[in-house]
Structure to design on (201 residues):
């Protein structure tokens, strides 16, 4: 596998099939918008190779420890955190006009393979046309790839035939630990209990 800087790739996540590109490729970001038929300035989630990469990139409150983040990301979750907490800058076009950035990491071989290949975090979003149901099986993913993104890399990895299809729970967390559940996923109740650990040490 050789993924070039502006290439787009299609791959399975923990819940649905995804499509992504390097965090530093504006061309790839635009390609994804064209493929999904969505606005080019729509912010996308960012996938990291590890929890450590996320922990190193942001100034988190002392309550948000590495171990807390590690468990959080095992719960089919996405974290939204303020851009101002970044320790370094990422391209302005990558976040649009938003004051927040969405973060994910998954302990999957395909995520590690992509990260090792491109050596950067990468944008991630569900594989589907905007307004359509996200794709959950390899057969439909291949059909989408051939119809809408034939120039993309198709990375089936060791995926099973059918993924759960249940989107991740999205949690907006402020630096003062105020939080809001922006989207409820399959494990939302576990996530709520986990968030409470921030307040009771």
């Amino acid at each position: 596998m050789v993924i070039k800087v502006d290439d787009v790739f299609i791959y399975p996540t923990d819940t649905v099939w995804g499509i992504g590109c390097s965090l530093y490729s504006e061309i790839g970001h635009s390609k994804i918008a064209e493929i999904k038929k969505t606005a080019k300035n729509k912010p996308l989630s960012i996938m990291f190779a590890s929890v450590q990469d996320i922990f190193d990139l942001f100034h988190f409150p002392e309550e948000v420890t590495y171990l807390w983040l590690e468990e959080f990301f095992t719960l089919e979750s996405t974290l939204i955190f303020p851009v101002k907490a970044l320790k370094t800058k990422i391209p302005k076009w990558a976040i649009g006009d938003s004051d927040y950035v969405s973060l994910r990491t998954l302990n999957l071989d395909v995520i590690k393979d992509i990260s090792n290949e491109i050596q950067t975090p990468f944008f991630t979003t569900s594989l589907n046309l905007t307004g359509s149901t996200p794709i959950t099986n390899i057969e439909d993913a291949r059909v989408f790839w051939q119809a809408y993104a034939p120039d993309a890399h198709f990375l089936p990895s060791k995926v099973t035939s059918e993924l759960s299809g249940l989107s991740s729970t999205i949690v907006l967390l402020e630096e003062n630990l105020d939080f809001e559940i922006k989207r409820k996923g399959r494990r939302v109740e576990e996530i709520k209990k986990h968030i409470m650990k921030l307040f009771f040490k």
In short: The chain has seven helices and nine strands.
